[in-house]
Design goal:
The protein is mostly helical. Helices cover 59% and strands 7% of the residues. A two-stranded antiparallel sheet has the order 1-2. β1 and β2 form a beta hairpin. The protein is elongated and about 55 Å long.
Amino acid sequence: MNAHLAARVADLIRVAHVGSEVSSRELALALGIDDVAGQPTTRVLITEAVGSCAMPIGANERGYYLIESPEQLDEYVLGLHSRILGIEARAEAVTWAYGIRNPKERPIPPLEAYE
């Protein structure tokens, strides 16, 4: 997207918010970006900052933060894996439900096949 903006995101999180979170909205305002709820663009910038600036940035319900310990890293990665499993389960359930409603288009495997 924009390496300069990603570097600014990294700086904002590293310097201005050591030990605490910065919200997507705060980032959008500080960067002067116009974004619906601040999230789509800031998410892309966060991902870019992680990769291009080697910044271990985590997120929680309060915002983005610099991961500063192995415990924080483990907690964040575990949360990501949990979300992945939840998304996979929803995808499987939706696929199963679609097969139930559209049996001519898809064979209907038993729901247990998705567990």
